[in-house]
Amino acid sequence: MTVTRSWIVNGERRTVRFDPLARLLDVIRGQLGLCAAKEGCGEGECGACSVVLDGELHLACLTAAAQVDDGAVLLTAEGLEDLELGRSLKAAFDRQGAVQCGYCTPAMLLGGYALLSNTPSPDEEQIRAALAGHLCRCTGYATIVAAIREATS
Amino acid sequence: MIGADQRRKDSQSKMAGTTRYTADISYEGMLHGAVVRAPLARGRIRAIRRVEDAGVDWSRVVFATAEDIPGKRHVQMIAADMPFLAWDEVFYNGEPVALVAAESREEAETARRAVVVEMEPLPATLTLDELVERHRQGVEQHELARWHLGRGDVRAGLAAADVVLEDSYTTPHQEQAYLETNAVIAVPEAGGRMRVEGSMQCPYYVAPAVAGMLGTDLDHLHARALPMGGAFGGKEDFPSLLAGHAALLAHVSGRPVRIVLDRAEDVAYTTKRHPSWTRIRAGARSDGTLCAVDIDIVFDGGAYITMSPVVLSRGAIHAPGAYSWPAAEVNAVAYRSNTPPNGAFRGFGVPQTLYAIESHVDRLARACGMEPHAFREKNRLREGDLTATGQRIDDTVASRQVLEKALEISGFEEKHRAWGVFRPAGGRAKKGVGMALYWHGAGFTGGGEARIAARVALDLRDDGLAHIRVSSTEMGQGAHTVLPQIVAETLGVPVDRVVVDPPDTAEVPDSGPTVASRTTMIVGGELETCARAARDRLLEAVGRLTGRDAGALALEGGEIRDGDEVLGGFSDLLRRALGEAGEPRWELTSQHRLAPHIRWDEATHTGDAYATYAWGCTIAEVEVDLDLYEVRVPRIWVAVDVGRAVNPTLARGQVEGGTLQAVGYALCEEVGVRPDGALLRDRFQTYILPTTLDSPRMEVALVEVPYGRGPGGAKGLGEMPMNGAAPAVANAVEHALGIRVCDLPITPEKIFAALEERK
């Protein structure tokens, strides 16, 4: 038995077929071939698997792919280059030195994207609260927070 | 370029999600491997059985035990005591005993669970407490390493002191918690060769270990480091074991095999920071002059030797701290326990002993009636002073600069006088401020760099680029940006004209492991030499090509000039010169030698322990909630001496990241051991890492006291930031509450207990 869904992925219509119990993360990484979303813990603690689903940030490791309806709009880090806010976030991350090992980076960018889409000028507390579900072991977070601030200005 | 905030070479692909880490790579016909593990902390294996009727079609599963190993059964490290797969006695819960591989990860997992390991249990040692108890009672136990070092008459020194303070300090396991778990792929190649590739800091550790296991040589087995999602020492020695597992499955099946650990396996079974116990007896005169220190150190090495001798050595050498002691003695021992082997983690033994001595020095200052910064200023190591190993500290000492800078940016003196236990702040929180002064030897200890004798190569190629060929890996620290900066600076070309070839043992010389804060300083230094030779070689060739005197030519900003006249761009002229010579590339090589004045006796641990030291001072502000006893760290200030920051943005990133790891070490990170020897907190739901909400605002000051033998003056940096924050936080907590927790992490439970005890 398989489930079929048709989603808008990074601006393109994509049709996927998967096992009813499949995790969204495995469908994205496997069938869609988009590897920016990472499995860091598999239990919703690290946030490295985050994707933006209909404008909201979701943990793809805890989301059943079958729960994502036809017509859903999915954004992964691969799609950020096509968006103005995505490009300015990436430029700010690069300038601030917010990228180190890179494993948390795609999801961090999406976390910033989801925040700024809903709250265009967050203060530092709001940025820190919005990113509290993303673990980064390399940076100490300061450069990431600074990059998101920079992208707002 | 040196000193410039050059953007990372890998940032665009990492942000776009196109960087391929090990778990992102598949091959045609690839199988998924999994490791079958021992269910007890210690015992003898009686049988390894594949259960029939467990929903597994065993004809579809590749299965291997130690009996299938064609070559050496032990992993070649400092000692060869750890088996790839146990076949007789097991020394920790979770030790690998068999391997399975199947078409999917799920099938492999099902098969793994359907293997039963029958064992006869034996008595096990599970905790640091047990090791320390036996140590204190003088009961003999299995030693993995032991060192003694010292200088001067400690007994007389302590007898002459006005104040003598004794206490002991303990630290727990710490998990590296890189976001990418350990992962490796073994790929059979034509001609009976095999490649192992994956998340590894040290391909030249992995290749000989796996070749030995397969009974082959380095011509038939090569190791390639792929982009790494963090490592912090956790991918120094462990990948040799995991690569052996993937290679054995690939050898048995003839197919590519990938093993990606899940988070729980990675936390539970890979190396961690050694738990430690450090007892210090230290004396000072009432005017604050240090007299003598006697230090006794016990590390829990875990089940096998792995890196314990060198971790313990570095911890022991740094144990007296960044101070001038007229007499000092250090006895250090690592014992075996029946827990997973402990290994490398940023700081490599130093965060443990530095936490102890910096806590103790703070208390000694108070006992002498001195403020913490004044006491440190009085006693810090200065140019010309001797360390406990008898090394005379040279002109690169920056203890004064980092101390002054940290005091200045933090406003420590004012805060220290205004806050603290005797002047409670309003509300339900008390504020405190604490400091730590520290050092960190750059590069391998003693003769280590002479033994490694790092070899590097720089190619000028007909693609118009300079190619760096080293085994030094990129794990997020920025080596593959910083090394090109050093080459570009010396060669006189833009950074985009310099690329780093993949660290593959079939392609690059052995520039040593990517550890010990040695890559920028040592490997970068040798590349600087190559780049100078490369420039001369190219200018000579261009001189011949254009009929000019090579001595009059210069390469600057990517252009070759004769006086004011531009002869052409670097890439164009390089292609033409190589074409003229009929060669595809020129290879320039260099090999590291220790400075001739360095003397080191490993047996007695006397002499020049490190070619140079980096210096740091960390100041932490804490707020302790008086209802919950929770410690917050709102702000941290760090001043570090890096010799020269090749890339200040990346250097700050190292300092900030290392500092937060140390805050986690101070306050929340703890693994724990269950009664059956399995580790207690083996996942991110239970092993607590600092988040954006727990991390302090940080201010970092880079102090630059150049080191003559480092490229552009650079010293090692990566590990040092891990040393400072834990003792600074501990000292700030004492400042706030007037109690001392001598056992990391400083949890609310321990604060509660200490306050109750004081009542």
Would you kindly provide a written description of the structure presented here, covering whatever features stand out?
The complex is a heterodimer of chains A (153) and B (759). Chain A has 153 residues and is of the alpha+beta class. Chain A is globular. The termini of chain A are far apart. Chain B has 19 helices and 28 strands. In chain B, a hairpin with a 4-residue loop joins strand 24 and strand 25. In chain B, 61% of the residues are buried. The interface between A and B is large, with 52 and 54 residues.
Whole-number radius of gyration of chain A?
Answer: 15 Å
How far do the termini of chain B sit from each other? 59 Å
Largest sheet: number of strands, sense, barrel closure of chain B: 7 strands, mixed
| Beginning-to-end CA distance, first to last residue of chain A | 50 Å
Average predicted confidence as pLDDT of chain A? 97
Strand content of chain A: 15-25%
| Helical/strand content category of chain B | alpha+beta
CATH architecture of the largest domain in chain B: 2-Layer Sandwich
Tally the beta strands of chain B.
28
Kindly report the CATH topology of the largest domain in chain A.
Ubiquitin-like (UB roll)
Largest sheet of chain A: 5 strands, mixed
H and E string of chain A: EEHEEEHHHH
pLDDT < 50 runs, ≥5 residues of chain B: none
- Quaternary state of this entry equals heterodimer
What is the percent of helical residues of chain B? 25-40%
Q: State the name of the first-level CATH class of the largest domain in chain A.
A: Alpha Beta
Determine the number of helices of chain A (DSSP H or I, runs of at least 4 residues).
5
Name of the CATH superfamily of the largest domain in chain B: Aldehyde oxidase/xanthine dehydrogenase, molybdopterin binding domain
Mean of pLDDT of chain B: 97
Secondary-structure blueprint:
The complex is a heterodimer of chains A (153) and B (759).
Chain A: E1 3-9, E2 12-18, H1 24-31, E3 50-53, E4 56-59, E5 73-75, H2 84-96, H3 105-118, H4 124-130, H5 142-152
Parallel strand pairs in A: 1-5
Antiparallel strand pairs in A: 1-2, 3-4, 3-5
Helix pairs in contact in A: 2-3, 2-5
Chain B: H1 11-16, E1 31-37, E2 43-50, E3 62-64, E4 89-90, E5 96-102, H2 105-113, E6 115-121, H3 128-137, E7 143-151, H4 154-159, E8 163-171, E9 183-189, E10 193-198, H5 203-214, E11 221-225, H6 238-253, E12 257-260, H7 263-269, E13 276-284, E14 290-302, H8 308-318, E15 327-336, H9 350-367, H10 372-379, H11 399-410, H12 412-418, E16 429-441, H13 448-452, E17 455-461, E18 466-469, H14 479-491, E19 498-500, H15 519-546, E20 553-556, E21 559-562, E22 565-569, H16 570-581, E23 585-591, E24 600-601, E25 606-607, E26 613-625, E27 631-641, H17 648-667, E28 697-703, H18 725-737, H19 748-758
Helix pairs in contact in B: 5-6, 8-9, 9-10, 9-18, 14-15, 15-16, 17-18
